[in-house]
Design a protein that fits this description.
Structural class of chain A: alpha+beta
Number of helices of chain A: 8
Oligomer: heterodimer
Distance between the termini of chain A: 49 Å
Low-confidence stretches of chain A: 173-189, 194-217
Radius of gyration of chain A: 23 Å
Helix content of chain B: 40-55%
Number of strands of chain A: 10
CATH superfamily of the largest domain in chain B: Transmembrane di-heme cytochromes, Chain C
Strand content of chain A: 15-25%
Number of domains of chain B: 2
Shape of chain B: globular
Helix content of chain A: 25-40%
Mean pLDDT of chain A: 85
CATH superfamily of chain A: Oxidoreductase, molybdopterin-binding domain
Largest interface: A-B, 52 and 48 residues
Strand content of chain B: 5-15%
Order of helices and strands of chain A: HHHEEHEEHEHHEHEEEE
CATH topology of chain A: Sulfite Oxidase, Chain A, domain 2
Chain lengths: ~300, ~300
């Protein structure tokens, strides 16, 4: 080539420096609030366009039973550490009740036996984790639309919130079993698909946990919560499932009752559902973004 | 700076060489080219961030966790090793894939290293935000490019080989293998391999990449179940998305290498200002063709 080497060296050096600066710059940009909001418009566009493309009745693909995954990978909480939940599980959920309240004319309280007597829907669907993996399972449960119809929504109702039994972040007064760290909080690398949380929990108790206990006042434990809007709540495939693959829902997969809101990623499929609250806005739910992972920065709309 | 090409061709006395400027890249092409370059870079790096959340690939509808097509992981050894398994064969990829140093300098359990991912830390939701924003920018920018290219005739100029080019395909292959690039009139148009490559990227790789990305969305699968048929399931779509991303990286590497080899500054000037220099070999008299003129 006919160019003096100094120019090429200069160019290479400049490229490397620009690359390094760009990486650091992108990380800093990603932490700036205005930029974060700008990036989030991409996810707003996802919601807007997908709601245009899907009707309220468009069904998620259903599969033949032959496609059912031999093992339905559980994720997030696999064994709630909460004493109250453990007590329910010991009695095989005979004393469990689902409560439906908030902006409804008739609050409901239903036992598992009562839920099982209601008309049910069975569907073989694919579960897509936000991480990227998928599993197919057969779910049987009560259509959420039936329960909401029975409770009769008030006119202001806009969202349906699911309050769950599993503690995610332990307050100091958590009421959880100290020996059981299965669902203890994990570190900064948390994502809704984390399957191994034990390490994080131990770390917290060994190091930072003790300090925090001295410094902070007693707080309520944060249990899992999620929400859907009325489009997803009344979708024909949205059910509260009590069976997986023809058997009672295992604890690892959300016993006794979990949400199946097909057309959405895994973190919307709340497990260990205890109470359903109908609300007008998320303002008073967690930190106001509509769900546990949403409050950690994940998009509320999880159709993609 | 004196141009050295004059000395290079000096012994060839039969030819008179003149530099002529040709306006090659209209503004829309130039702007969409650089926006596209930025989008592809961000999509690649944020895509690797998303991949790192579950660094394994499968074929079919679901994940067969015991038999991935490809997987990266960190071993329990001290210090830990990074291991990559591809189609049943295992490779030690410590420091690059499976295990590489995190921000704290300690080996971290991560698929791709932090200098290849956006954000650099493990941050799935951050990666998704970047990816979706730049996916929209990529699609809108690409639509503008295609519409403009179609109606301005630029697309035809850039991707459709002319009949004589097809006839001389073998000669073009030889030229590439010996790194001899066309000069004079022949340099005014893209060569046949170049056109076919751009056509494959524009009309095969990029559309497949978008469709495979959409096929991973549970909502899109509800709206357009044919996406699953097309890719043989969601996990296959994810694998295709990964492989096509790798092919696009290969394209960019070759593209940049050829940009450098065939005259870096001339090519850069072309894509920045639109003006491209044709080193013109004129035999008896200059041909009046109207495609290029000195500014």
């Amino acid at each position: 080539m006919n160019r003096p080497p100094s120019r090429r060296a200069l160019l290479l050096g400049a490229t490397a420096a620009a690359g390094t600066a760009m990486l650091g710059g992108c990380d800093r940009l990603g932490e700036a609030e205005w930029f974060r909001r700008t990036l989030k418009t991409g996810e707003d566009a996802n919601l807007f366009v997908q709601r245009l493309l899907l009707t309220e009745r468009t069904l998620a693909p259903e599969f033949p039973e032959a496609d059912i995954s031999p093992w339905f990978k559980p994720n997030g909480t696999e064994d709630p550490p909460d004493k109250a939940y453990k007590a329910l599980a010991r009695r095989k959920f005979a004393t469990y009740h689902l409560e439906i309240d908030g902006l409804v004319e008739t609050p409901l309280k239903l036992s598992l036996a009562e839920l099982r007597k209601l008309p049910s829907r069975t569907q073989v669907t694919r579960h897509d984790c936000v991480e990227g993996w998928s599993a197919i399972g057969k779910w049987t449960g009560v259509p959420l639309a039936d329960l909401l119809a029975q409770a009769r929504l008030k006119p202001q109702a806009r969202y349906v919130v699911f309050h769950c039994a599993d503690t995610m972040d332990q307050g100091d007064d958590a009421g959880t079993d100290a020996d059981d760290a299965d669902a203890a909080p994990s570190g900064g690398n948390a994502n809704p698909a984390m399957t191994r949380q034990t390490g994080g929990g131990e770390d917290k108790r060994d190091s930072g946990g003790q300090q925090a206990a001295d410094a902070e006042p007693a707080t309520e434990p944060v249990r899992y919560y999620e929400s859907v809007d009325l489009v997803d709540a009344f979708h024909p495939q949205t059910i509260l499932a009590y069976e997986l693959n023809g058997k009672a829902l295992p604890v690892a997969n959300g016993a006794p009752l979990r949400l199946r809101v097909e057309r959405n990623l895994g973190y919307k499929q709340a497990k260990y559902v205890m109470r359903i609250e109908v609300v007008e806005s998320f303002a008073n739910i967690g930190e106001g973004n509509g769900g546990y992972w949403e409050d950690q920065g994940y998009a509320w709309y999880a159709g993609i | 700076m004196p141009r050295t090409y004059l000395t290079r061709t000096a012994p060839d006395t039969a030819e008179v060489e003149r530099r002529r400027f040709m306006f090659r890249h209209p503004a829309v092409i130039r702007v969409t080219h650089w926006v596209n370059a930025l989008c592809l870079l961000v999509l690649l790096m944020s895509g690797l961030q998303i991949f790192n959340a579950h660094p394994a690939l499968y074929w079919g509808k679901v994940s067969t966790f015991d038999t991935p097509l490809m997987a990266m992981s960190q071993t329990e050894d001290d210090p830990p090793k990074g291991v990559t398994t591809v189609l049943g064969r295992t490779f030690d990829t410590t420091g690059l894939l499976g295990s590489s140093d995190g921000a704290d300098g300690e080996p971290a359990d991560r698929g791709f290293p932090s200098w290849l991912t956006l954000p650099s830390d493990q941050d799935l939701t951050g990666g998704r935000s970047w990816h979706f924003f730049f996916a929209w920018a990529f699609v809108l920018n690409g639509a503008l490019y295609l519409l403009y290219g179609l109606f301005s005739g630029q697309l035809r100029f850039r991707v459709v080989p002319q009949r004589d080019q097809v006839r001389h395909f073998a000669a073009s292959v030889r030229e590439h293998l010996t790194l001899r690039f066309p000069q004079g009139d022949e340099a005014k148009r893209y060569n046949v391999i170049q056109k076919l490559t751009y056509a494959v990227v524009l009309f095969v790789l990029l559309p497949v990449q978008v469709l495979a990305g959409l096929a991973m969305s549970p909502a899109m699968d509800a709206a357009f179940p044919f996406l699953l048929t097309l890719f043989d399931g969601r996990q296959s779509a994810r694998t295709v998305h990964f492989v096509v991303a790798a092919l696009l990286v290969l394209f960019v590497v070759v593209h940049v290498a050829l940009v450098v080899l065939s005259g870096f500054w001339n090519n850069m000037r072309g894509m920045l200002t639109g003006w491209f220099v044709i080193e013109r070999k004129v035999e008896p008299a200059p041909a009046a063709d109207g495609t290029g003129s000195a500014p």
